Amino acid sequence: MDTIYLDHAATTPVHPEVVREMVGCLEKTYGNPSSIHGIGRQARRLVDQARNLAAQSIGAKFNEIIFTSGGTEADNLALIGTAFANRNRGNHIITTSIEHPAILQTCKYLEINGFDVTYLPVDSSGRVDIDTLKKHLRDDTILVSVMYANNEVGTIQPIQEIAQLLSNHSAIFHTDAVQAYGLLPIDCEDLGVDLLSVSAHKINGPKGIGFLYAKNGVKFTPHQYGGEQERKRRAGTENVPGIVGFAKAIEIMMKKRVENFHRYEQLRRLFIDTLNDRGISFEVNGDLKNGLPHILNISFPETNVEQMLVNLDLEGIAASGGSACTAGAVEPSHVLKAMFGAHSEKLFNSVRFSFGYGLTEENIQKAAEKTADIVKRLTS
Fold this sequence. Notes:
Number of strands: 12
Largest sheet: 7 strands, mixed
Order of helices and strands: EHHEHEHEHEHEHEEHHEEHEHHEH
CATH topology of the largest domain: Aspartate Aminotransferase, domain 2
Number of helices: 13
Number of domains: 2
CATH class of the largest domain: Alpha Beta
Shape: globular
Distance between the termini: 26 Å
Strand content: 5-15%
Radius of gyration: 21 Å
Oligomer: single chain
Structural class: alpha/beta
């Protein structure tokens, strides 16, 4: 039985062209980019080319890109590095209640270390209110971190409006763009952000590589010690094959972003229309008009998310109950809890389907029909 993979928000299959680039690099470019001989310079040249492409993809400068081991490290570096480096100015941090665990757990660590963290609420669509943020902004606020788009329900946050609000404040503005990168247009100058996190494995690149955009002049302290790689901002020998694969994924993404956006919108609509045609009772969590096109979070009344996921898996459909980073947890989604309250039935009956590279309309039609059959069976 062929599996229909509908969990692209968790991770994406590596593009064949990315694989070829990485294999070629592993076979031929084994030098250390910090070495001064020819073999080392060859590796350095590939890293520099990738850094330039990464910068181009978000309207940044070459030296504003810091390669990391992924989105989690980029988030950690942004928050911890900024917090400790700017502690003399204040100890207040603002984030949201629907952030990825890479942000929320880092904020918990910062609280243990004496920082005061405010977790902003969201409305029922998963969106932050600008006026609420404004009310919580203080003179001693040194950092604001709001994700560009949510990984569980897809809701896009008003990043430009937040940046405009902060333009007259000294707080540094970070956004976790891991889920948005590759589908939404990103120009850091237009967005007005100071720090931005990205991960390769969300755009059909390899796992274990990402980058942090750090605007020139932003003060932060590295929390990894060793060599002087990444201009002394992130120690450790560069993952050259990963960086090369990331660069190829970025190259493909830049050519296909708009096409993919509309393609995934069509697949999402087909899935919804098929459920409607089969007479299934369901509600979409999030905001279809103001959300990422590849994420579809659905509440199925009178079902249980664990039963749904097991039955979907038995039918060859890979879906999720939320963030892959909390997939093994018993607790309900913190995102849905923030949106609907701790006692909402949606916390226990919602499934996330997410679309991406390699899927066909036939796949989506079949997956939606099987989902409908499962719902009917579980609610009969």
